[in-house]
Amino acid sequence: MGNPFRVCVVGGSNMDLVATSFAAVRDCDSNPGKLTLNPGGVGRNIAENLQHLGVETHLITVFGDDPFGEQIRASCRSSGMDLAGSAVYPGIRSGTYLCLNEPDGSLYAAVSDMDACDAVTPAFLAERQAILDRADLVVAEANLPEESLRWLAEHCKAPLAMDPVSVPKSSRLISVLPRLTLIKPNLSEARALTGCEGPQETAEALHRLGIPCVLVSLGANGIWYCGAEGEACQPCIPASVINTNGCGDACFAACIRAYLEGMDLCAIARMGQAAASLSAEYAGTVSPHLNWSGVLARAAEAI
């Protein structure tokens, strides 16, 4: 049986350099540890997770014209993503994400170089209107230029989901918030978007703007969800944590699949936490072992 849903993801693709220290990170010093290299990027990660979760996924991105770019494209093709809407532009440097983790896999600090996303312009997107029009849902993320996010909000026929990515980039979403169906900021991003403080206040403020499904990530404290069905905190689901890099992207992908399945908001948040739990048990950015039946099983264990 074919994939039941079709999602188009518009966003960044890059190479992740993940360094994990063997001991607590020491500032201004060399920290012995282990370095891994994996294809990443918020958009690309969400797309690969969706593909693993049984969703037909089309990725619209610009790949770098360099060896990293070819590696990233190859990984996308091997996962089954449709790249008909993506492109390689001469002279474009691949995006890179460098992070330093504590021994338990939690993030200590990171630097993101996503200039390649600037090539995803409104004109670039307009040429791919037909691909966007065939989607059951469109996902975008704030590494894209603000004018491109506005173009998507004005021209997409399908429901629109967005990830704010980071506090500095979250402001790019402010003008399009009333058009969104789903949003998954962390608490710092939600504060930047609303001017409110706590998870309940920020989630309610975003919902009042007209967003039906608001999911505020609280890290180890779970997800505060808010919508017409009510609001509450969905706790984290226990995991044998190896690496937390990419857990948020797995979470959002599972929330999207659950939304498309017609699940209620509580179940959507629970599926997201189940996917994050499974993702944390893999050393790389996206777990090749993630699948929808596994998410359902992990979520059932938590009830």
Report on this structure.
An eight-stranded mixed beta sheet has the order 4-1-9-10-11-12-13-14, sandwiched between helices. It is globular and about 50 Å long. Helices cover 35% and strands 23% of the residues. It has helices spanning 42-52, 67-79, 122-126, 129-133, 146-155, 167-170, 187-194, 199-208, 247-260, 265-279, 292-301; strands at 6-10, 14-21, 33-40, 56-60, 62-63, 87-88, 95-101, 107-113, 137-141, 160-163, 182-183, 213-217, 223-227, 230-234. It contains eleven helices and 14 strands. The protein is an alpha/beta fold. The protein has a single domain, classed as Ribokinase (UDP-N-acetylmuramoyl-L-alanine:D-glutamate ligase). Helix 10 crosses helix 11.
What is this structure, in a nutshell?
By secondary structure, the chain is α/β, with parallel strands linked by helices. It contains eleven helices and 14 strands.
Number of helical regions = 11
Main sheet summary: 8 strands, mixed
Radius of gyration: 18 Å
| CATH topology (level 3) name | UDP-N-acetylmuramoyl-L-alanine:D-glutamate ligase
Low-confidence stretches: none
Number of domains: 1
Task: Estimate percent helicity.
Answer: 25-40%
Label this structure with key terms:
303 residues, alpha/beta, 8-stranded mixed sheet, 4-stranded mixed sheet, globular
How would you summarize the topology of this molecule?
Layout: E1 6-10, E2 14-21, E3 33-40, H1 42-52, E4 56-60, E5 62-63, H2 67-79, E6 87-88, E7 95-101, E8 107-113, H3 122-126, H4 129-133, E9 137-141, H5 146-155, E10 160-163, H6 167-170, E11 182-183, H7 187-194, H8 199-208, E12 213-217, E13 223-227, E14 230-234, H9 247-260, H10 265-279, H11 292-301
